[in-house]
Amino acid sequence: MKYKAFHKLSYGLYVIATEFEGKKAGYIGNTAFQVTSSPAQIAISCHKENATIDGILKSKTFSISVLKKESETSLIGEFGFMSSNDIDKFRNIETITAQSGAPIVLNSSIAWFDCKVVNSVDTGSHILIIGEVLDSDIISEDEPLTYDYYREKYKMLAPKNAPTYVESEKLKKEVISENKVQEEPVSKVEAKSELSTHTCTICGFQYNEEEGDPSMGIAPGTPFAELPEDYKCPICNAGKDYFTEG
Amino acid sequence: MKYKAFHKLSYGLYVIATEFEGKKAGYIGNTAFQVTSSPAQIAISCHKENATIDGILKSKTFSISVLKKESETSLIGEFGFMSSNDIDKFRNIETITAQSGAPIVLNSSIAWFDCKVVNSVDTGSHILIIGEVLDSDIISEDEPLTYDYYREKYKMLAPKNAPTYVESEKLKKEVISENKVQEEPVSKVEAKSELSTHTCTICGFQYNEEEGDPSMGIAPGTPFAELPEDYKCPICNAGKDYFTEG
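Structure tokens for the assembled complex are given below, as produced in the milestone run.
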């Protein structure tokens, strides 16, 4: 089994949102795909521990907002890596109410779908939910955000609840094993660069000293130790203490 | 409902293949999505009239080959627009046999998955099939083919059996209605260009006179009427007679 093969599957990134008894909930997922055309139905895969699933199954509705290529990092951080049980993700978010009653997130979105749950399948850790599309619209002609672009830009792992989550240890083993095949000791490869990488333990974002963090005004070549004390992860807002080297 | 919103969902393109009682079958689909990570499971959506579904449900196995960005057009034409009941799609195809027994298509592929069917859901016109991944590998580091790139390159509609198929009339109505909003009569827009487009009625490929068909050695600006008599659709090999203007 080659776990990196899973990275060759193509996905977009979407905000899935719902509302039940006045409580809004939402998360960012990469699994939203059309399963039939007539009637139009879309399937999503949602982790059972995700706070949003409860609202979706009870309200029998959800909305899908298609994220644009350059989406707000705070939106990705909060909807992708935090729980609707812990914070009100919608406090600074612009929404409209769909025909079904679900809130539709407009920030960083280029199109949306309003869905009514028609079926659900227990797949183990996740529930596959099939929704009939009641309505849809296009907000802008910006390019959609693809999972591939997101992974490349933020050097990130999937959150633990994502269907595409692969334990970093499994990926590391593959990389080490590949290096062995090339008969180049891993220690030698690592020794080539004096600049290192620091990983956010909350969301997996990697601060690469060579690249810096231009989105936060940090110049390429800035060592992690020299980052301002109030530096925060551009994805999930975690402080420097949450980063580990490597 | 805005049908063009469905074009904002991101997909890759895959060859799904199977074998039952010595008969190989396969098709090209855009729906292959990881639905859980542990165990790794992938869902596909297959039209009930697709010849491959019978083999998948009987053998309880299928393979997924991830197509590369510049894939062979004959492979897309045969696996995407023809039926395994009518032709032997595998006659010129290089395959290996997966652990499950399914054939894995290697042509134009960058990675593959070998899957065992663990569940299936009737969604109306299609069946959603969930497979547990038994094995996977990477063949090359080429970029994957995305549905977006494919649509842009070939100016194509989805085949009739695809979950993403939208009747061209529905899309046309949206375009006409958008032009009306801009208060620019459609006839006026069309009159601006003397060069027209001809559409393959088999697969939906559009021959645009302005662009020509460089893949077949046809220069930009070549009117359809002046194409060689043996010109064939670069996707599905249909002859000129199968094209209609518009």
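Chain B has two domains: 3-147, 193-246. The radius of gyration of chain B is 20 Å. Further analysis is deferred to the final report.
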